[in-house]
# Entry
Amino acid sequence: MDEIFSIPEFAMNPLAKHIVTYMLRNEETKEISFYTFIKFMQTFSVYASREDKFRLAFDIYNMSNSGFLDEAEIFQVMKAMAGSKIEDAEIWRIVKQIIFENDLDLDGALSFEEFRNALAFSDVVERMSLR
# Structure
């Protein structure tokens, strides 16, 4: 496990903990297999589809593996990305706004479809493509 955090580009990623949790989700040994690592990295190819990139982002954020992003999961991701630059109260305000604007079925969480629609016009695909 320590090996993956020795990669500087990975170690400085604010979502590194979420990424490792995602990659370990289906590993019985609690070690990231080469297959899992390659499958994960494949999504960052310029040839990977938008859908695959959206699915990977959603699955990384969905730490509970429930199939829905609740307020707490969105908060965790935003907190990891913002660090100490934004107060927790402001992050919670943003999270509630995200849910309000994108939760079409009003269940208090974002499904994959709602998440994908929320990011439809973002640059997430470009940001998730290694060149």
Notes: Residues 38 and 126 are 19 Å apart (CA to CA).
